[in-house]
Amino acid sequence: KFLVFPNMYNFSLGLPMHYYRSFNNLRRITSSAKPPEFDRQFVNRNPRNLEKLRIAQKPRGYQLDTPTKEYWNKIFFQQSARHITAWVEHFTGYKVASASTSEWCIKKQLYSTKDVTAALNIGRILALRCQYFGLTELHSCFSEKEREKSLKLHKFLCALEEGGIDIVEPERFYPPHPLDHIKHPNPLEVLEENVPDNPPAGVNQKDVSYVFRGFTRLNPKHPRVFPRTRLIDQMSVKDEK
């Protein structure tokens, strides 16, 4: 029946067409409102929203990958014989933001395009462009030894941090398992007004917001061992006093 007369059945409602037509006519009689009009073309104006909520898919790669593949946005720093270039690359392969001393608007303001001052200013410009784009947390694969060997790289990363960019990317949120010892809060349920404004002595306000949002920045070596409950207990004791 449905193969011979495909128009006799409405597959969206799971009803024959005469039932669907009767419901449609009843709606027109009982309601004088116009049927809702929907735009057939949908444009996502905030594609980085799921990454902000820490629920977007992040490539995990293999455990022995060096450098790791587990990131959303990664910082790249390149030095050539004449210029310094830095950019932020998404894990899909396209460049999100970039800055280079080869750009005329940057080159004409610098004395040299390859010294330490140039690297410092490239970090400032890239941090500003990332802020315009909406990126505040990036993945950095540079080790401490690399920063000690290269003064340009060290100044570049320091300029990024001074510009409001965190070079430690938060971990992806996974639904907790019933047998987990520590259950991180769901970032969808944590609001900014729920983060306390008066942390205990010796605790930074930014670190407190990281803990309440479920990040593990305070103890990167052992991320699941950080005593989040102890920090909350300290705040409750302080409030009681």
UniProtKB/TrEMBL annotation:
<dbReference type="InterPro" id="IPR005484">
    <property type="entry name" value="Ribosomal_uL18_bac/plant/anim"/>
</dbReference>
<protein>
    <recommendedName>
        <fullName>Large ribosomal subunit protein uL18m</fullName>
    </recommendedName>
</protein>
<dbReference type="GO" id="GO:0005743">
    <property type="term" value="C:mitochondrial inner membrane"/>
</dbReference>
<comment type="similarity">
    <text>Belongs to the universal ribosomal protein uL18 family.</text>
</comment>
<keyword id="KW-0687">Ribonucleoprotein</keyword>
<dbReference type="GO" id="GO:0006412">
    <property type="term" value="P:translation"/>
</dbReference>
<dbReference type="GO" id="GO:1990904">
    <property type="term" value="C:ribonucleoprotein complex"/>
</dbReference>
<keyword id="KW-0689">Ribosomal protein</keyword>
<dbReference type="InterPro" id="IPR057268">
    <property type="entry name" value="Ribosomal_L18"/>
</dbReference>
<dbReference type="GO" id="GO:0008097">
    <property type="term" value="F:5S rRNA binding"/>
</dbReference>
<dbReference type="InterPro" id="IPR036967">
    <property type="entry name" value="Ribosomal_uS11_sf"/>
</dbReference>
<dbReference type="GO" id="GO:0005840">
    <property type="term" value="C:ribosome"/>
</dbReference>
<dbReference type="GO" id="GO:0003735">
    <property type="term" value="F:structural constituent of ribosome"/>
</dbReference>
<keyword id="KW-0496">Mitochondrion</keyword>
